[in-house]
Design goal:
Layout (H helix, E strand, L loop, with lengths): L2 H17 L5 H5 L26 E4 L13 E5 L16 E6 L11 E7 L2 E6 L7 E7 L3 E7 L6 E6 L11 E10 L5 E9 L6 E9 L5 E8 L2 E6 L3 E4 L9 E8 L3 E9 L3 H6 L7 H16 L2 E4 L3 H13 L5 E2 L14 E2 L4 H4 L3 H8 L1 H18 L6 E2 L2 E2 L8 H10 L7 H13 L13 H6 L9 H21 L3 H10 L7 E2 L4 E2 L17 E2 L14 E2 H5 L6 H7 L2 H14 L23 H15 L15 H11 L1 E3 L5 E4 L6 E5 L4 E7 L7 E7 L2 E2 L4 E3 H5 L2 E8 L15
Parallel strand pairs: 29-33
Antiparallel strand pairs: 1-2, 3-8, 4-5, 5-6, 6-7, 7-16, 8-15, 9-10, 9-14, 10-11, 11-16, 12-13, 12-15, 17-28, 18-19, 20-21, 22-23, 24-25, 26-27, 27-32, 28-29, 30-31, 30-33
Helix pairs in contact: 1-4, 5-18, 7-8, 8-9, 9-10, 9-12, 10-12, 12-13, 15-16
């Protein structure tokens, strides 16, 4: 068959399998390309929900995802991070199909007919039409599958670069050593060790690859700057040390006289033999694709929406798709310690995902979130600390507070269950009480914070860390109170008000201070760090301004209202932040800010802000995200707002916003919760009245228990605000 015929058969199989699915249009609506360029850095290739394998194209101008939408494709690697910033990680075991003699130099090919949908990526590569090679990709959690269609009558090759990584201009991982083998049955295996990239800690990854037919020839190859050596028939080779010369590469190849070839490649953190075992039970390409589609259909079907525009539905399901990509489930691959607990890696980083992603998983993927919490606590049990960011078996840089605490606290406060809350509190309390031996990677810097009630400028990121530490303390207090550690609760609640010591009444924002109490000189609330005067991490704020971080008081909004002149003054203060361009949807510190209006009795202002952000900053296009997706943080923000709810992460309640869909059905673990927005439209954005299970409510929030009990939230929408929820009453803890 030609490549077009194969694609037709693949699509026909998908439609046939989808016809029996609960909502076959999910596949048509979810677009893996959304956010893949323009700074979103999402991975467009094939994977399954939370799978470690993300089999995706790498391009010559790719970002941390290895990809951009215009430059030549260099091949397709099996491991990627999605939506991340900073330096790159992974990009392992890149394979490239070629024609003619084996040549591992300058592998860069034009592309045409590029398509993707959940679980499937297809493209044609080749610099001339007669040399086009068809590539189809699908995956399981630990295995990638490729179907390659070579031009009829030509000899084709599959080259595997054992030392590959997403290099990002030299800022990615570098191989320190690699090994590759070919076997009599035509299979290929190997491993490579890497260091550097986003998290400089080393890791080793193994693979085992098999083909659906025997190659006519196998061999090995090496390459470096302008040089290469092809070794036909060679069965084993070590090399690929890139520490001194990044162009050093080591790989293998297989040659075929057949037009269509299928290859399966499994990865493992443990061994080549474990990678081979991971191939057990994996069917052919079409069978695996059908199974991947089934997994995605189940995940996307957890929320069913109707109404809205076609663009809004496509954006919604693309965002929901992206909310199921990280962290990666590597259970059974824990090489770092012995444990029977679920194991997840690539929390990149909790500073981003605690706000919207993990609360979403708590509702629609509760068992997944339990496993993630268990993995975090198992990491604490074996390493002594909760991670705030973690990749490939080692912690990465902590951007602000100890925000793994918020993920654990959120699960405890919402009675997620399935883990030991006492162990959770132990881990949270350690972050709150024990000085970190390695502040960039674990725990908190506490000495000055405890003594002064704030982080002084003698510490890096003092302003932003004061704000985050305060909230970390609050959630510690909540958990202590829930578990009846009364004295601890009082202590942490008191400490959580330390952010007020940085409030400057004259400027109307938080203002960093020295240890002696003096204010930072020549300071403006709207000045955004980092700048070029110091290393990225060494500024008073991490990726934000005084205005942006002033909105991050999820536990003490009453205190913030008091300091800005009461309800009216607070609304004016928030208006200034939004209207004068100080709010930044492309980064996380202030993304709760639109919902703070509710505390001043102005849910109409929340509706205005979130509708504007959704309409202007989110589009179902390759450049359609407002910034790095950050492991689904930005995408899950859209999911929440589109259905008209929003979490205050770490606390067991949700704000009511301004849904864009007439009906949203959330499939919970033991019930269904439906949000009905009557007469909703672009103009009818304001909730003018609300009923919960038939009973009128005059508040713009719901408790977690109200949602989990199931039922219906009925919202009457109008074009003019009413007096609904104009008097704020705080949810009970």
């Amino acid at each position: 068959m030609t490549f077009n015929q194969i694609i037709f058969v693949s699509v026909a199989c998908l439609l046939a399998s989808s016809a029996q699915a609960k909502a076959p249009d999910f596949f048509a609506l979810a677009d893996p390309f959304v956010g893949s360029s323009g700074g979103g850095n999402t991975v467009p290739g094939a994977g399954v929900p939370f799978g470690f394998v993300n089999l995706s194209p790498d391009t010559t101008h790719g970002d941390t995802n290895g990809y951009d939408n215009w430059s030549p494709i260099t091949g397709f690697s099996y491991t990627h991070e999605s939506g991340t910033g900073g330096n790159s990680k992974y990009g392992n075991f890149r394979f490239t199909p070629t024609l003619g003699p084996v040549n591992p130099r300058n592998l860069a090919y034009d592309r045409r007919d590029e398509h993707a949908s959940p679980g499937l990526y297809t493209v044609r590569i080749g610099n001339m039409a007669k040399e086009e090679i068809g590539v189809e990709l699908t995956a399981t959690r630990l295995v990638g599958l490729q179907r390659i269609t070579f031009p009829r009558g030509q000899t084709g090759n599959l080259l595997i670069d054992v030392t590959s990584a997403v290099q990002l201009g030299g800022n990615g991982p570098r191989a320190t050593m690699a090994h590759v083998e070919t076997h009599p049955d035509g299979s290929i295996s190997g491993w490579a060790s890497f260091e550097g990239g986003w998290n400089p800690a080393p890791y080793t990854l193994y693979f085992y690859a098999v083909f659906d037919r025997t190659p006519s020839e196998t061999g090995l190859w090496t390459a470096s700057q302008g040089k290469s050596k092809v070794l036909p028939g060679r069965t084993s080779l070590d090399g690929g040390d890139q520490r001194a010369q990044i162009s050093n590469r080591l790989g293998a190849y297989a040659r075929f006289n057949d037009q269509s070839i299928q290859m399966k490649l499994a990865v493992s953190f443990i061994s080549m033999d474990k990678a081979r075992q991971n191939l057990t039970g994996i069917g052919d390409f079409d069978t695996t694709l059908t199974e991947a589609r089934s997994e995605w259909n189940s995940a996307l079907g957890q929320i069913e929406v109707s109404g809205g525009t076609d663009e809004q539905r496509r954006m919604f399901y693309s965002a929901l798709y992206r909310s199921h990509t990280m962290p990666h489930d590597v259970s059974g691959e824990n090489v770092w310690w012995q444990s029977t607990e679920p194991h997840y890696e690539d929390f990149y980083a909790i500073w981003d995902t605690f706000r919207t992603l993990h609360p979403l998983l708590t509702l629609i993927q509760p068992q997944r979130q339990r496993d993630i919490v268990r993995s975090l606590l198992d990491t604490y049990r074996h390493t002594g600390w909760l991670p705030d960011a973690r990749v490939a078996g080692a912690n990465g840089s902590t951007q602000g507070g100890s925000n793994g605490d918020i993920v654990i606290a959120d699960a405890i406060m919402k009675d997620l269950g399935g883990f030991d809350p006492a162990l959770g509190y132990e881990a949270i309390r350690k972050d709150a009480e024990v000085e970190s031996p390695d502040p960039m990677n674990i725990g908190r810097v506490l000495k000055d914070y405890v003594a002064l009630g704030y982080m002084p400028l003698s510490e890096t990121r003092s302003g932003s860390r004061t704000m985050e530490y305060a909230y970390n303390d609050f959630v510690a207090g909540q958990v202590a109170q829930k578990l009846e550690h009364t004295d601890d609760a009082k202590h942490y609640f008191a400490r959580s008000l330390g952010w007020r010591k940085l409030w400057d009444d004259k400027l109307g924002c938080i203002h960093p201070r020295y240890a002696d109490g003096a204010w930072l000189e020549n300071y403006r609330c709207d000045y955004t760090w980092p700048d070029g005067t110091a290393p990225w991490w060494d500024h008073p704020f991490y990726e934000g301004s005084g205005y942006q971080y002033s909105t991050f008081v999820p536990h003490d909004i009453t205190g913030l209202i008091d300091r800005t002149g009461g309800d009216a003054g607070f609304v004016a203060w928030l208006d200034h932040i939004f209207d004068d361009g100080h709010y930044d949807q492309g980064n996380e510190p202030d993304i709760l800010a639109p919902y703070l209006y509710i505390h001043a009795g102005r849910p109409d202002k929340t509706a205005d802000r979130v509708r504007k952000i959704m309409a202007e900053k989110y589009h179902p296009t390759r450049t359609g995200l407002p910034g790095n997706d950050d492991s689904g943080a930005m995408s899950s923000w859209y999911v929440w707002n589109a259905i008209g709810l929003y979490p205050n992460a770490g606390q067991p309640f949700y704000y009511i916003g301004s849904p864009i869909f007439a009906r949203s059905v959330i499939h919970l673990e033991k019930a269904t919760f439906t949000i009905v927005a009557k007469n909703v439209s672009e103009a009818n954005r304001y909730v003018v009245s609300a009923k919960l299970n038939g009973h009128a409510i005059d508040r713009a929030w719901l408790t977690h228990s109200e949602i989990m009990a199931g039922g219906t939230l009925e919202l009457e929408m109008g074009a003019i605000p009413s007096d609904w929820a104009t008097t704020f009453v705080a949810p009970a803890a």
